[in-house]
Write the structure tokens for this entry.
Amino acid sequence: MKIFEYLQKYDYEQLVICQDQTSGLKAIICIHDTTLGPALGGTRMWNYDCEEDAILDALRLARGMTYKNAAAGLNLGGGKTVIIGDSRTQKNEELFRAFGRYVQSLSGRYITAEDVGTTVRDMDWVHLETKFVTGVSSSCGASGDPSPMTARGVWRGMKAAAKEAYGSDSLNGKTIAIQGLGHVGYYLAKHLHEEGAKLIVTDIHDDVIKRVVDEMGAKVVGCDEIFGVEADIFAPCAMGAVINDETIPQFKFRIIAGAANNILKEDRHGDKLHELGIIYAPDYVINAGGVINVADELEGYNYERALAKVEMVYDNVAKVIEIAKRDQIPTYKAADRMAEERIEKIGRVRSNYLR
């Protein structure tokens, strides 16, 4: 991987490699774009196969946050952190405090939050070293775990996609396949179960599967089987790049709408979904509930205000579908167009006042 070629291709601003021998911290902070404001994006902890995979994930996720924040109407740019390690066995206070010092050193250009593999407790540790962190515990005057809001936004966006596919946004009686039952996947499953949907689920951890089976009567399939099940909607809520040459031929879904980031392995896979008539709710539009929620903390957190903003994910997904139909383009291109136009317009306004 030629890092500077990649940075130049997508116009990244900054890549920070962080290490601390005492705590074992190995992290990558990536800032993609700050045209709309400081870069906001969570911290992911994952046991990557190699360091290059971690860097690439940080790059992809940071760019995705630029588009997510822009499409959600936030005055924030895009950034992301990945920490290399096993989130179940390698966490400690000193690791997250060391990371917090790196965040503080960026002087507000980057604001972090939790993501896959990190929790509110972890962010509380980060908060001991920097004020540039959101999603800390409510005892600190913040919103706490953003997962319920992310899940609510996905549920609302899924309903908007269903309205386009079926003429009604009701999910009662629909069969929905969920890949990944972490914090967001669990809360999404709960919303769907309460609305009367039938659930088919998979996860790499037996304990989270058992919880959803016991509480919601979900059907369980293997991790590799989820792509070929008979279902109305596929909700990827784990890692990215799951829409690819191997999985697409298995699909029997009419809708793909989930919480995972960067689920298209390549753009051409979004084109293929469009050709097949599968409605894809672009990931960074439908999963924006969490970042909308934590962004509200920057104004002094108000739950009702944040909830009202998260409800608008329904409208944002509907708008993307409408643009796609109007311009006869795939939904992933429609979402990019919506985000890029906002960044360009606000960038021009701001540059006029800097002259």
Notes: The chain has a mean pLDDT of 95.
